[in-house]
Amino acid sequence: MRRRDFLGALGGTAAAWPLATRAQQPERMRRIGVLTGGVSQDNEEAKARVAAFEQGLQQLGWIVDRTLRIDYRWPVGNPDNIRKDAAELASLLPDVLVGSGTATMSPLQQVTRSVPIVFVNVTDPVGAGIVDSLSRPGGNTTGFMQFEYSLSAKWLELLKQIAPDVTRAVVLRDPALTSGIGQFAVIQSVAPSIGIEVTPVNVRDVGEIERALTAFAHSSNGGMIVTASALAVAHRDPILTLAARHKLPAIYHRRFFVAAGGLMSYGSDLIDQLRLAAGYVDRILKGEKPANLPVQAPTKYDLAINLKTAKALGLTVLPSLLARADELIEYRMRFAAVRMSPIGT
Question: Domain 151-267+301-329 adopts which CATH fold?
């Protein structure tokens, strides 16, 4: 071979080396940051959520700790911790952020308007200013809403069905959230037609809840509705303890309240939402824009009843209500001992 031909062949081979090298290199690991609202990391509900989310991603071909890294933060309803954890997750330069609960959204959107955000368990994302509309979210955020406000009326109806003697009800809500105000407004609007007088109680701290429920329980025929918020979840144990102490029939927005001793719950399946959220994360990692992915509402709501708690309250659950229940819980899980503050402090 002539020297000129040899050098030409060598040059062609060398030019191909970078392409071959790039083809052999593994795809870079993608990164997701997950910010929760109310549950703690060691909570059974939290473990189920993580498992559902990761299984959803694995079914779509992602391998955790190989092709995908997930960073979790658990601020347990504390607003200061939510803001701090949101900033910390954004500093890790994730490809996608996932927020669980309405309280996580403002902090996440404040720290980034460019990183895609997928939410679950959010009430009224349009009213809260999280998205422009359900069909065309706009911006960098989309996801799965917890329920529509009309569901709040169902809580009052179900409370009356399981405890017909109830004529008064306290409604635990977070007034700092648009959804807290909206849920109470719907409940208040239907209360006269159901024959129940409702009183709002803030869920900012345990002492406030305790004082309000203790004063409320001095009169008979009372009940309780616990609306959806991160603070309600964070204060789950003291709320359940107070409901049992004062023998208040109560309905909650999440099944895990009932599994821990609450009377009844009616709400969407958050575990299923996290499986669906994995699908949106997958589509975004593959190039789709959150602005073009519509916000989805739940298609199924579950009713759970704790029969042991009903018996302890002296309630007879009607066969028609039993037939509607998706789950009947016949045991009471032991929840953590809660230290209550002295009344009047």
Answer: Rossmann fold (3.40.50)
